[in-house]
């Protein structure tokens, strides 16, 4: 490990990373602190083939550039991109608030681009296996669901439950419900379970029940017009108990 003083332009910022988020008040305090005292905690970089790659300290680096700093103090360690991404996740996760979509992007990059399996990611980041699996599942949701998650219209748990629906049109019909932010997660989970069961994606009988000896052709019917419909176009419908009883 080395402590160096380098030009900000010498530091490469990865395209995918987790970055701490500030409220307006906290950012103003942060900016004033940098202005008065400078960067008291050095920026952390890994050196990869002679290139300094940022691991931790993007907000500090950006404020130093705004303040016109010609050089910044950097702690430099040898490493690779896998270490850059896993260390970035670990450090920002332990500090609190960050965009969940940033975390998902980094995990997806580790899994898809760098061939890291869940066990390796878990060991390096100290996230639970269940959490990593859920985040990777959410990485595959439709763009509309992803946008809602990024805007914090829904949280990660709702995004995961909605993402269990196999078709984008189903996911989008649910997330575009004007009351989606107020619907309890348990209700969404139950609705998705019921939809998947109707589609044959979940067993209607308890686990361990022998499958039928002969395959059967399943037809899916709209509960309104009773017409046969392609299962891709089945949509979850949010109803109160009274309306549910009237329709069904």
Automatic annotation (TrEMBL):
GO biological process terms, semicolon-separated: chromosome segregation
Location of the ParB-like N-terminal domain: 4-89
Cellular component, GO annotation: chromosome
Protein's UniProt name: ParB-like N-terminal domain-containing protein
Organism encoding this protein: viral metagenome
